[in-house]
Structures are given as C-alpha cells and as structure tokens.
Amino acid sequence: MDRQQFAELRQAVSGLQTPEAAVAAGFRPALGNIPGMGVHYVHGARSRDGVQPGAPDHLLFVDIDGRERLVGAAYAFADVIETDVPIPFQSDLAKWHDHPEFAGPDQTLHMLHTWFIPSSNGPFAGLNFWLPYLTAGIAPPSACWMADEADADRIRTVSFALVPPRARRGQPAPAPVEPSTERVEILAALDFAARAVDHDAWVAASDRFLADLTA
Fold first, then answer.
1. What is the pLDDT of residues 47-95, one digit of tens each?
2. Residues contacting 180, CB < 8 A, separation 6+
C-alpha cells in the first residue's frame, strides 16, 4: 500500500522538480537551508486544508551536483499535541514529528517527511543525514552503520560539519572558502571509503576530517 502511495505522490509532484516550478505552483521558500532537511517550499493554502496524501504541503529541495533537486515532500498541520489525525502511510516508520515553535499555545506543528532519495533513517525520517554528504559531492556512508550508536553519532557529526556556515539574520552570507589540499584529500578518502563500504577506512577518514576542523 505504501509503495503505491509513494508512487502516486511522486507522480503528483513530477511537474515540480525545480524551485521555479514549485513557485509557479504556489509554493514559497521558507527558513532557508536546514541541515538534514534542505529548503522547505511551503504551500500556504494546502497547509490549511488538512492532510491530503497526493498534495503535500511542503517540497524539499537540496543542492546536489550544482543544481537544486527535489529530494522529498512533507505534510504539516497545526493541532493539539495528542492529535488524532491519521498518518497518510501505513508503515510503522511513519510518525508525526513536532515543531511546537511554529504553533500557537497548547498546539504543535505536526510534520511528516517523505524522502524520494535514500535516507539515513528510512523514507519517513525527520532528518536525512545523507543530504550534506550529497551536497558536498561525496558518497554517504553505509546505512547499515547507523545501527551502531557510536557509528551513528559519528555519521551525524560529520554530516553537520559538512554544512557550510549560514549567514546570521540580516547579515550577508559568508564568502565561500576554498578548501585546503588536505581537506580535499580527506573528503576524497571519506568518499572512497563510503563507496567501498570500508568501515574502518571511513572511521579513520572521519577522524581526520573532524580533527582538521579544529586544527
């Protein structure tokens, strides 16, 4: 059933593969690029119409290979914390996650992400830690390694560290910094180890990467 719904969802957004197409369809970018989520393009009218499986409220775009790609969609609505609104998918992995900071008193913003690309924690994960790897142009590590909490913590730490600095509110974006030769070599080592599914080599490369951040 979920496979069919995913297929129908993909078909429903098939004409919205670029930010320009999303804007033309009534979506607007909000909150900037959030690590592990990308840029949310929000359809205000849909957000007030309840959960419609074939009409997501948000589209998620991420810069991959130099262009903004549609990588997922999301459903969102404000309600009391213990909502009885049903999940639009049957999988046990599909659960609302909450953003109380975006709702009024005694309410929360319930949200469900659906990912069109591989995700670190499944197709309904609140955060997809693979996104910063893809934006950096390197292969994500094996999803199997997420089963070990120490490995998962390392993967998440590297993921967030790969995100370029964001501009402070009202300030210009920081100028891009050309990576050092050593940083390029480290990223190449991370990429090679991930593609080879070489856990020990990836751990060693990640140690070098994290140490280089504080050097």
1. 777 788 888 999 999 999 989 999 999 998 888 988 888 888 888 888 8
2. none
Task: Please state whether the predicted TM-score (pTM) of the whole model is above 0.70.
Answer: yes
Distance in angstroms (rounded) separating the CA atoms of residues 56 and 59: 7
Residues 6+ apart with CB under 8 A from 87: 94, 95, 96, 112
Q: How far apart are CA 16 and CA 147, in angstroms?
A: 34
Residue range 144-161, pLDDT digits in tens: 999 999 999 999 999 999
Q: How far apart (Å, rounded) are the C-alpha atoms in residues 130 and 159?
A: 7
62 phi-psi bin (left φ>0, alpha ψ -120 to 50, beta other): beta
* Three-state secondary-structure class, residue 47: helix
- Name the token pair of 182: 């050593």
The residue extents of the domains of the chain are 2-128, 138-213
- Count other Cβ atoms within 10 Å, centred on residue 169: 6
